């Protein structure tokens, strides 16, 4: 079939935190044909600050596209065989640029960045009745006040960068997450009518979109002191937006956009209410499909848009739990502590010991996300003894990610009332079989590994194809009969719960690390 002249293909731009890539799939399938991936540099101007150069991001994406197309054409394929392109991206990361020149007014502030902690404190202090409730805006946007989200980054830019403040005042500033920045440039930029768009999944991560109406909300804009003029138009996740005007895919329609975690939800085919997936990358992100219902969490989770596959399609929602530090904790062990030289050594090292010897590592390098939402928490390693080795610390690091996933699954159970019986998983860390077994052991349910380690690009490609082939049904036509590896629990409930109780004790200490007596939060009751 691949050699047939009638075969169609779909491309996916996947712009993540640490790298960007372009992948071409056979249309309507999870079969990749060719791809190219390049790293994206991050900068750390101060402690807790994380930035990237928006121009470099775009140049890296263009390079990935062009190299992949060269390989595509070497396989005998033509540009006309590529019927659509989708985009998926790191979500809350924010760019502001000049409307006239198209040039960035500051580096992209990345989702991990924690500089807006003071901004959060100032906004919390302004909440009526002095309630200091970080969930004050959740009924409108589904999100708590946190440095994580785009509105806080925008407010910081307004308050601290003269060129941004001036451009906002003059109506000359344009804002977007990374998708908006990419489609603006791919469709012409300032010189050639570049589109200023965002889809509902990315917009739902800004704290500026009403989670019910899926429109920008005046009350939210007023609360953050931001002008409406900076905002892109909100569109669905799967429709014709425009055509590429640069690179070797010039003329190809761009027909899908999903934030990376929502793209993984689609790529994992978690399209029914009650299905959930976890993606392990720089951070770890769990999404639980709640269908067309907006479920407001009372246990520390986020309400977000899962996807909207068509302009007139019913939007589907999700509950999300976000773990800031997952794979990056292993990077820290390698680069800061020198415990190993290559990430491929992690599984063999952790397998050299039968357990973590009661070592618990809470990697709260920039605070804790769901379900704690404590920006003052800091990393801590508990339970060290003279018998502790580097292997125990590496294994404890893997377990720390598993425990954080259990934290989120516990909250999902409380919010939805139905415990999960299985968890679909993907992401770079899923190549580690010991890690997935630990995950199954520590949450007590089956963990099912995706056929492909990365499903974000696949989700974008499937949504892009659906826009040009409306009869395509993602959930019924994708790789029928594929067998996925399943990991089942090997420890009993008592051992699992004892270890989880010790984990929560370690979290209490991470939250109260600078206090004589660690404070107890409501979550631990």
UniProtKB/TrEMBL annotation:
The family database entries (Pfam families) matched by this protein are listed as: FGGY_C, FGGY_N
Q: Does the keyword Kinase apply?
A: yes
Origin superkingdom? Eukaryota
Q: Which GO terms describe its cellular component?
A: mitochondrion
Pathway assignment reads: Polyol metabolism; glycerol degradation via glycerol kinase pathway; sn-glycerol 3-phosphate from glycerol: step 1/1
- Domain Carbohydrate kinase FGGY N-terminal per the UniProt entry, residue ranges: 11-267
Please name the GO terms that the record assigns under molecular function.
ATP binding; glycerol kinase activity
Alphabetical list of InterPro entries matching this protein: ATPase_NBD (IPR043129), Carb_kinase_FGGY (IPR000577), Carb_kinase_FGGY_CS (IPR018483), FGGY_C (IPR018485), FGGY_N (IPR018484), GK1-3_metazoan-type (IPR042018), Glycerol_kin (IPR005999)
Please cite one Gene Ontology biological process associated with this protein: triglyceride metabolic process
Stated EC number for the protein is 2.7.1.30
Q: Which reaction does it catalyse?
A: glycerol + ATP = sn-glycerol 3-phosphate + ADP + H(+)
Carbohydrate kinase FGGY C-terminal domain mapped to chain residues: 277-467
- Stated family: Belongs to the FGGY kinase family.
Note the PANTHER family from the entry: GLYCEROL KINASE, SUGAR KINASE
This protein is called Probable glycerol kinase
In its UniProt entry, the species of origin is given as Glossina morsitans morsitans
């Amino acid at each position: 079939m691949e050699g047939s002249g009638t075969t169609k293909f779909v491309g996916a731009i996947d712009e993540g935190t640490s790298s960007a890539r372009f992948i071409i799939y056979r249309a309507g399938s999870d079969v990749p044909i060719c791809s190219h991936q390049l790293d994206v540099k991050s900068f750390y101007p101060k402690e807790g600050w994380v930035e990237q150069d928006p121009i470099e991001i775009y140049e890296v994406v263009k390079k990935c596209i062009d190299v992949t197309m060269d390989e595509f054409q070497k396989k005998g394929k033509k540009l006309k065989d590529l019927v659509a392109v989708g985009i998926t991206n790191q979500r809350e990361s924010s760019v502001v640029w000049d409307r006239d020149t198209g040039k960035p007014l500051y580096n992209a502030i990345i989702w991990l960045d924690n500089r807006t902690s003071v901004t959060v404190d100032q906004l919390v202090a302004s909440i009526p009745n002095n309630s200091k409730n970080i969930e004050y805006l959740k009924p409108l946007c589904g999100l708590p006040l946190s440095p994580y989200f785009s509105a806080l980054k925008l407010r910081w830019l307004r308050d601290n960068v003269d060129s941004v403040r001036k451009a906002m005042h003059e109506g000359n500033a344009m804002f977007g997450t990374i998708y908006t920045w990419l489609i603006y440039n791919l469709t012409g930029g300032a010189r050639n009518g570049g589109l200023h768009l965002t889809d509902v999944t990315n917009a739902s991560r800004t704290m500026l979109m009403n989670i019910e109406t899926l429109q920008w909300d005046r009350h939210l804009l007023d609360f953050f002191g931001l002008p409406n003029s900076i905002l892109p138009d909100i569109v669905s996740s799967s429709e014709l937006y425009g055509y590429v005007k640069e690179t070797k895919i010039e003329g190809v329609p761009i027909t899908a956009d999903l934030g990376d975690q929502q793209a993984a939800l689609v790529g994992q085919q978690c399209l029914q209410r009650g299905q959930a997936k976890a993606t392990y990358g720089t951070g770890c992100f769990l999404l639980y499909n709640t269908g067309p219902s907006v479920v407001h969490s009372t246990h520390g989770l986020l309400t977000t848009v899962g996807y909207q596959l068509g302009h007139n399609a019913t939007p589907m929602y999700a509950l999300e739990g976000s773990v800031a530090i997952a794979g990056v904790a292993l990077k820290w062990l390698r680069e800061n502590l020198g415990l190993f030289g290559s990430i491929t050594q992690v599984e063999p090292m952790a397998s050299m010991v039968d357990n973590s010897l009661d070592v618990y590592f809470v990697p709260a390098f920039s605070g804790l996300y769901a379900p704690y939402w404590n920006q003052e928490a800091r990393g801590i390693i508990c339970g060290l003894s003279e018998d502790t080795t580097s292997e125990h610390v590496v294994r404890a690091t893997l377990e720390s990610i598993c425990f954080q996933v259990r934290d989120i699954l516990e909250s999902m159970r409380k919010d939805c009332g139905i415990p999960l019986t299985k968890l679909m998983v993907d992401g770079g860390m899923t190549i580690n079989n010991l890690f997935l077994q630990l995950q199954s052991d520590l949450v007590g349910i089956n963990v099912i590994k995706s056929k492909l380690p990365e499903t974000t690009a696949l989700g974008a490609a499937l949504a892009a194809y659906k826009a040009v082939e409306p009869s395509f049904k993602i959930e019924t036509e994708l790789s029928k009969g594929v067998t996925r590896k399943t990991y089942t629990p090997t420890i009993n409930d008592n051992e699992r719960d004892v270890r989880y109780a010790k984990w929560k004790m370690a979290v209490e200490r991470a939250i109260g690390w600078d206090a004589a007596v660690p404070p107890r939060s409501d979550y631990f009751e």
